[in-house]
Automatic annotation (TrEMBL), chain A:
InterPro entries per UniProt: SCO1/SenC (IPR003782), Thioredoxin-like_sf (IPR036249), Thioredoxin_domain (IPR013766)
Residues reported to bind Cu cation: 87, 91, 175
Keyword vocabulary terms for this entry: Copper, Disulfide bond, Metal-binding
Protein name: Protein SCO1/2
Organism: Sphingobacterium paludis
Taxonomic lineage: Bacteria, Pseudomonadati, Bacteroidota, Sphingobacteriia, Sphingobacteriales
Coiled coil segments of this chain: none
Xref: SUPFAM superfamilies: Thioredoxin-like
Entry-linked PANTHER family: ELECTRON TRANSPORT PROTIN SCO1/SENC FAMILY MEMBER, LINALOOL DEHYDRATASE_ISOMERASE DOMAIN-CONTAINING PROTEIN
Domain Thioredoxin: 49-212
UniProtKB/TrEMBL annotation, chain B:
Listed PANTHER family: BLL4482 PROTEIN, BLL4482 PROTEIN-RELATED
Protein name in UniProt: Mono/diheme cytochrome c family protein
Taxonomy, superkingdom: Bacteria
Signal peptide as annotated in the record: 1-21
Organism: Sphingobacterium paludis
Keywords annotated in UniProt: Heme, Iron, Metal-binding, Signal
Domain Cytochrome c as annotated: residue spans: 32-121
GO MF term set: electron transfer activity; heme binding; metal ion binding
Length: 215, 141
């Protein structure tokens, strides 16, 4: 009886490992957002290109009072989110989790981080600087930015993250705690709830896949 | 091989002893308070202070400084209910908040939470009673 059963376990494990390996090699992250088919004529033939949703150009002020634009993220994968420094609810957990990602990839210039403050009234560059330092961020790989209400709330829509000034929400602002994964062509490749352990673990996995991808 | 097994056994025994001694001599009531407190802690405090009371960088202090907890035991209820906004020294590091309070918590709920943090993250064996919390709250500044 026992002699029958024992061989199955190792076989199963090997099968599982194999399928996991092949799965990983082929895996490609989806491209998220609306897409559009555009026709153009090349050498007299019509070809159809797919235009994907992209993060548009932006200009913000960072924790060192320096101007930061989309150019600073050119040819990089980056993780973006929306928070504010005195947020009492979801932000501490979201930032605690993003800090783990930052610490793993610290010094890797293929990957950057971009936290937008949605509290344009209070979170001046010096407040952001003090926050970043206390969180444990000490290089330019993770940018904390502020901007006008219109620009910050406008760009949050482009990341498909809901943000809103709301007196009834904890801290005065209502927002979603997504960590949004952006590829080298400014396309959204994943969104993970930064307060959910499993989704943060998925971000770690997906980030590896995206960093391996040839643009 | 024999040696390896023996040293593994010794390590295993050590872990078991440590695990037991981590379970302090708390009364049933204290244990119940801590269980109730854990849920409230997860809802109101864990985002900042962490699942193990480890804090976060220099932003949010850990809740593991037993000296601070002993010396400020009478103030803890006020901190939970009304928050804190002054420099505090925790494990020799200075934190300056601010921490928002949770004014809607009742005295018994505060007793649950404080029992949880002082017995699980600190080294206290005693629960906070509702009376102790009420007395503390009466002296909030």
């Amino acid at each position: 009886m026992a002699g029958y059963r024992t061989p199955y376990l190792p076989v199963c494990i090997v099968a599982l490992l194999l399928s996991a390996c092949t799965g990983r090699n082929n895996k490609k992250l989806p491209i998220i957002g609306e897409r559009e088919a555009v026709e153009r004529v090349v050498d007299g033939k019509t070809v159809v290109d797919t235009l994907y949703h992209q993060i548009p150009a932006f200009t913000f002020l960072n924790q060192d009072s320096t101007i930061i634009t989309d150019k600073d993220f050119e040819n990089k994968v980056y993780v973006a989110n929306f928070f504010f420094t005195h947020c009492p609810s979801i932000c501490p957990t979201m930032q605690r989790n993003l800090l783990k990602v930052y610490e793993k990839y610290k010094g890797n210039d293929k990957l950057a981080f971009l936290s937008h403050s949605i509290d344009f009234k209070y979170d001046s560059p010096s407040v952001l600087k003090s926050y970043a330092t206390k969180l444990g961020v000490d290089n330019a790989q993770w940018q904390f930015v502020t901007g006008s209400k219109k620009d910050i709330y406008g760009i949050s829509e482009k990341y498909l993250v809901y943000t809103k000034e709301d007196a009834s929400a904890p801290g005065g602002y209502d927002h979603q705690g997504y960590l949004v994964l952006i590829d080298q062509q400014k396309r959204i490749r994943g969104a993970y709830d930064g307060t959910n352990e499993e989704q943060v673990a998925q971000l770690f996995t997906d980030l590896e896949i995206l960093l391996q991808e040839r643009p | 091989m024999q040696k390896k097994i023996r040293s593994l056994a010794v390590i295993g025994l050590g872990i078991a002893v440590i695990a037991f001694s981590c379970q302090p001599n708390v009364s049933i009531q204290t244990a119940q308070y801590a269980v109730n407190g854990q849920k409230l802690y997860q809802t109101h405090c864990q985002n900042c202070h962490g699942a193990k009371g480890e804090g976060l960088g220099a932003l949010y202090p850990p809740l593991t400084d037993t000296v601070y907890q002993r010396e400020n035991r009478h103030r803890l209820a006020c901190i939970v209910k009304f928050g804190l906004n002054e420099p505090v020294s925790i494990h020799g590091e200075t934190y300056d908040g601010p921490m928002p309070g949770v004014p809607q918590l009742s005295p018994i709920e505060i007793a649950y939470i404080l029992t949880y943090i002082t017995t699980r993250f600190g080294n206290s064996n005693d629960n906070f009673t509702q009376e102790e919390v009420k007395k503390g709250l009466a002296s909030c500044k």
